[in-house]
Amino acid sequence: MLTSATLMATGNVFDDAVVIARANPALGVGCHVVLTDGHPVSPPHTIPSLLGRDGKSFRPSLLDFVQALVRGGVREDEIEREALAQIEKLQRAGIRVTHLDSHKHTHLFPAVTRPLLRAAERTGIFAIRNPFEQSWSVSLGRGHRLRQVQVRLLRTLHSRFDHQPPIHSGKVRTTSGTIGISATGDLDTSTLCAILRALPKDSTEAFELCCHPGYNDSDLDRVTTRLRSHRDIERKALLTEIPARLLHPNAPRLIHYGELAEAQGACTTDSRCENVV
């Protein structure tokens, strides 16, 4: 039921994640570019504008990163350098990287999108997550109201994302949007069912379902995240609702980013070929 995942080059269990990814060749694996929270792959002295006060690790929160970005304190060339280092770490480990996305969706901002696209071109990657949620999906998220407001406000940056030259030209592929962001931490069976039912009918679009399925075990206890017990809930929701949806007439086709170009090409002749990554 899971067709696509992303892997953090900076994660503490990177080697274990690589083993799992390589054992599942049908799984599309992207690079989850990290620019906040944790330690970089690049030597710290080569990316000083990305680091926090200790000069060794990234800024500890998304807010800290965005404030520095808005003030012009983050250099695009250093973002590109670190993104390149993270991508190449995955590729050296034998991962065929299908696409890029970013931790905390930092590539919502053009100053992050641009260097990520340059890094993608340099490493032969031709797809990137569209980090903007569809309005109909936002309204179905049952999470915190503040999160929904934030997601709606950030949609004002969507047109700038779409008009980045590699995306606008189709050289780098993306979806029509990501669904489930507003429901992060609250994507239970009923919410996922509502989102899947709301997928546009007779659509020729592709959407990414953003979710965090997993197991709330002792390994997760060592990770700084608010998504703990809910990983079990999301896993059960996926295993329940996706198979049920696939039994419906005109069910969406499950793909990963490595199949996106082919799927979108087919949609130019197919009257109804909705895809979910």
From TrEMBL:
Cofactor: Mg(2+)
Keywords: Carbohydrate metabolism, Hydrolase, Magnesium, Metal-binding
Keyword rRNA-binding part of the UniProt annotation: no
One of the GO biological process terms: carbohydrate metabolic process
InterPro entries recorded: Glyco_hydro/deAcase_b/a-brl, YdjC-like
GO terms of molecular function: deacetylase activity; hydrolase activity; metal ion binding
A Pfam family matched in the record: YdjC
The protein's name in its UniProt record: ChbG/HpnK family deacetylase
The species this protein was found in: Edaphobacter acidisoli
